[in-house]
Specification:
Rossmann fold, 5-stranded mixed β-barrel, 5 helices
């Protein structure tokens, strides 16, 4: 147990999905898991364990942003021994080729966060996904006929920029960044640090270039595709 998690040893499966929103964690457990049980509710950051296609799997909300995710992921790895961590979330689009409802499977994650900086050297770490999980998820998405893109995601600590429109993102769109969210780079950095496997899969729900956005109904159906893909990847089914 930790100040942020009252789960007992063994309460989590080795593979976990990581939405930011606690209510999305609850929705995943109630709509996808068999025999779901609540294992953590500290600060209402909900965690559940159940099974998917007969194999154990967990879901744990991480809260919003890299600082919050880092707390939960650090503890899931170092206290509870989790091995595979897959972020499932939504993102804004920074590339016109990515349409609403499309999945972005983050091969890498650029960030403005200090988490990638080494205070004692001139180096910044380049956070990337686990190749095995990345390849598996792409093959599954291809086989299922999902619309997906593989590439670089931006994990930003800033949601509301002072600069209007895309100005706050500088040259990143010109360098092929596909979308912007707030957690993947921290997940990839911690997974690398502690020799774990991590992947981020996001649904693009609102495009910052075209201003297209999903309706509530389309958002829900597109999330089902993403969660199914993530669960199959997590358990290797």
């Amino acid at each position: 147990m930790t100040p942020h998690n009252h789960a007992k040893p063994g309460d989590y499966a080795e593979a976990v999905l990581l939405p930011g929103d606690p209510l999305r964690a609850k929705w995943i457990a109630e709509n996808f898991f068999e025999d779901a049980r609540l294992v953590n509710s500290v600060r209402n950051c909900l965690g559940y364990t159940g099974s998917w296609k007969g194999k154990p799997v967990s879901v744990q909300a991480t809260g919003m942003g890299q600082a919050s995710l880092s707390i939960y992921v650090h503890e899931l790895i170092n206290v509870y021994g989790l091995q595979k961590l897959i972020r499932v979330g939504t993102c804004g689009g920074l590339n016109a080729k990515v349409k609403v409802r499309d999945l972005i499977i983050a091969q890498g994650a650029t960030t403005d966060s200090a988490i990638v900086r080494d205070a004692f050297t001139p180096f910044n770490f380049a956070p990337i996904a686990d190749f095995g999980l990345l390849r598996d998820s792409v093959e599954r998405a291809e086989k299922a006929g999902m619309r997906y893109h593989v590439g670089n995601m931006l994990s930003s600590d800033i949601f509301y920029h002072i600069e209007p429109g895309l100005t706050g993102y500088g040259r990143l769109p010109a360098h092929g960044i596909l979308g912007v969210e707030m957690e993947a780079a921290a997940l990839y950095t911690l997974a690398a640090r502690f020799d774990r496997k991590a992947l981020a899969i996001c649904t693009m729900t609102d495009c910052l270039i075209t201003h297209a956005e999903l309706s509530a109904e389309d958002r829900q159906s597109s999330l089902r595709e993403m969660i199914t893909l993530a669960l199959d990847t997590a358990i290797g089914a």
